[in-house]
């Protein structure tokens, strides 16, 4: 039980060392993430459509 208590004490100490992002940084990171997801969604949708057309033409 002492090991578990010591573990949580150490977790609390480490969490105090974390540098949490500011609001503006979080907005920028979120916009970047959503943009990248939308780009890859469009890319893979287009790739799938093109490959489907090629398969239909040659079958």
The overall strand count is 0
Taken as a percent bin, the fraction of beta residues is under 5%
Mean pLDDT: 96
**Terminal-residue CA separation:** 66 Å
Structural class by SSE content? mainly alpha
Shape: elongated
> Are there runs of 5+ residues with pLDDT below 50, and where?
none
Q: What is the H/E order?
A: HH
Q: List the total number of helices.
A: 2
Fraction of helical residues: over 70%
Largest sheet: none
Radius of gyration: 23 Å
Describe what this molecule looks like in 3D.
- With 59 residues, this protein is mainly α.
- 88% of the residues lie in helices and 0% in strands.
- The chain has helices at 2-17, 23-58.
- The longest helix is centred in the C-terminal third of the chain and has 36 residues, at 23-58.
- The termini are far apart.
Summed up:
It contains 2 helices and no strands.
Which descriptors apply to this entry?
single chain, 59 residues, mainly alpha, elongated
What is the element layout, followed by pairings?
Layout: H1 2-17, H2 23-58
